Every structure is written in structure tokens, then in C-alpha cells.
Amino acid sequence: MTRTTPPRPVPVEGLFPKLEAFSGVTTRLHPRAGRPDASVSSVGGPLLWPAGEPWPMCTEPHKRSSGYRVADIRRRRQVLADAWARDRPSEEERALLKELGRRHREREIADHDPIPLIGLVQLYRRDVPGLPPGPEGCDLLQVLWCPFEAHGPTRHGLAPHVRWRRSDQVAVPLDVPPQPALVGFEGAVPEPCVLHPEQVITYPYAGSLPTRLWRKIAAWEDTEERKAEKRGLDDELVTYHHDLSIPQGCRVGGFPSWRTTDPHPMICEACAAPMVLLLALDSHEWDGADGSWMPTEERDVAEHLRDSRPTQLMIGRDGLLNIFACPTAPGHPHRWNLQ
Q: Which of 89, 160, 167, 195 could be disulfide-bonded to 83 (CB atoms 3.0-4.6 Å)?
């Protein structure tokens, strides 16, 4: 089914004509629950992986002997979905949900044992317009991660793994990838989703615009806020950051969002070139009282059946993961940023 981003609440280029010079294009992926196979682009679907190629593992030492079972996570989601589609969970279902949400311990798992990574997304170039180029001849982007937030200097970081490949060179695909015995958090396990790519116009994050232009936008926002306060309709306030610049949801290309930090340059560690946004994975497809980024096709769906988190991913504290690529040499190591 097609997914269409509704027109912006106000014509932003009409208000600020100089924004046109800074506009770009991003592709919203619009993942929605489905049954993708390895031959198509997906979030949370099976990856096209050569049977003879080792599956990537996390070998960084960290606690991994306590967590949730993947099968329990998936069953719990299904029970919840069925219950809310009907009305609400029954007493019997509540007891089951409590049991399925229980943490488990596998004492024989050591802190240094390899953990199979979990596949997050795969994108075929033929399916996704605007997918930034990969290494020469590669047409398939795959992203995986460790299902524990326990990496880096803080010991609370994520560990994404990016792989490009040529799909025509996968002669014998892997049937069933290895699966971790436990995961550190439920949001580490994506639900299988098919994609409905849509290209939309986007504008840079506010702090990346020239100061004079951003001050004009900020002054307009202040005026709109005062108007909304007088009407007592604060929940209808339109802002550049939330409604007019960078779309919410999973997407490729365009400009990175800096929700929790000030913008800062992402520089390729191999050649010092400024990097570009390759992929953004978002915990939500839309949010806010009015849900201005909610696709037009879903506005007629009953509110209790709308799902702004179809992938069930939870990135950090309900945020997003930006993955960057080197535009001059796509084979150089990727970088990422959590927002």
C-alpha cells in the first residue's frame, strides 16, 4: 500500500524563500508489518547472507547472561496486538504477558562469549530511490547490531555493523541465521516490516542554517507560539524543527536530525572528508498531538489501531540512530550518532 506524507501545515518556502537554496530530498521508508523475505528490502526481515560467510558476532566484553528471549518478545507483541485490536487484554492474557515479559538468566554464558548480531535492515538499490552509493558494484546495504546497550566508554552505547554487498554474488543464501540466546532490551528486536519508499523535500536542521535565516525562523516561531497561547491551542503549534524540516521515521539520505545535541560535523576517519547521512533508524514514524508526519492513508484508521512504532525498535531513550557514509570513498568505515 502506498504511503503519502501530507502537505506541510504551512508553506515553509513561501514564508522563507531563501530556504529553497538549502532544500534536499530524503526517502521515507515507511516500514509496516509484513512478511518480507531475503529477496526484498525490509526492516527486521531476513537478510540475503551467503551461506559460506561467517555471521557477524559481538565479541566486545560485556554482560550478556541476563535478558529477554526473542521468542517471548515476539509472542508478547502478538498477544498485545490481538488484545488491543479486540478491546484490551483479558485477565488470562495479562498473566501471560507478565510471564512473557520476564527476564531470564543463562549462567553458562560468559561476558566474552560471541553474540550473534541481529539484522536490522537491508536495502536494495532497486527498491529505494536516493540510496547513497556504496562501494563499486554493491547494490545491497545491510545493517546489524548487538542486542545489548553495553558498548563504548560509557558502557551504555549501541554497536551497529554496516555491510555492503553485491546481491548477484550470493549464490547460496544462508537459511537460518544464528540467534542470540538473550537480548538486553526488547527494542533490540525489530518486527519484520515491508517498505513503502517515498521521496519528500527536506531542509537542514535549524542549527545548520545560516544564522540570519535561522533567526528569522525563530522569530516566526515565537510569534506563532504567542498566537497559540492566546487561542489556548498549544497542541496545534507548528514549528520548523518538528513539522517543517526533517521528516520523522526511518529514511535514507537527506539531512541528519540533531534532537539531543547541537549539530557537529561527521568527518571520515580515513580521509577527513565531510560525511553524508546514509540511513536514519527512528523509534517512531510520527509523534506529537497532531502527528503531522503521519501518512495520509493512516488518518482514516481508528486511533487505537494506528501504530507509530511498526518496527518496535527502541533506539536509545526513544530516539534515532544516524549512520553516516563517506561520499568520496563509500568503502571507508561508516560512523554513527545516537539522538
A: 89
Asked if 248 and 286 touch (Cβ cutoff 8 Å), the reply is yes
Q: Which residue has 536490522 as its cell numbers?
A: 120
| Helix (H/G/I), strand (E/B), else coil: 154 | coil
**Beta strand extents in 232-275 (DSSP E only):** 251-252
Contact in structure between 45 and 210 (CB atoms under 8 Å): no
Q: How confident is the model at residue 289 (pLDDT cuts 50, 70, 90)?
A: low
pLDDT at 290 over 80: no
Better-predicted residue by pLDDT, 268 or 289? 268
Nearest CA to 26 out of 242, 247, 293, 258 is that of: 247
State how far the Cα of 58 lies from the Cα of 144, in Å rounded to an integer: 10
How far are the Cα atoms of 39, 135, 141, 203 from residue 49, in angstroms, in the given order? 10, 17, 11, 36
Task: Note the Cα 187 to chain centre separation in Å.
Answer: 11
Q: What is the DSSP letter of 292?
A: T
CA–CA separation, 120 and 31 (whole Å): 12
Per residue in 91-118, pLDDT (tens digit) is 999 999 999 999 999 999 999 999 999 9
CA distance 257 to 91: 42
Given its phi and psi angles, is residue 306 left (phi above 0), alpha (psi -120 to 50 degrees) or beta?
A: beta
Residues 6+ apart with CB under 8 A from 44: 31, 119, 120, 121, 189, 190, 191, 192, 193, 311, 312, 313
Report the distance separating Cα 188 and Cα 173, nearest Å.
Answer: 24
Name the average pLDDT for the chain. 94
pLDDT per position as a tens digit, 48-67 = 999 999 999 999 999 999 99
Please tell me whether residue 202 adopts helix, strand or coil conformation: strand
* Residues 149, 156 contacting (CB under 8 angstroms): yes
pLDDT tens digits for 223-265? Answer: 988 888 887 765 678 999 999 999 999 999 999 999 888 898 9
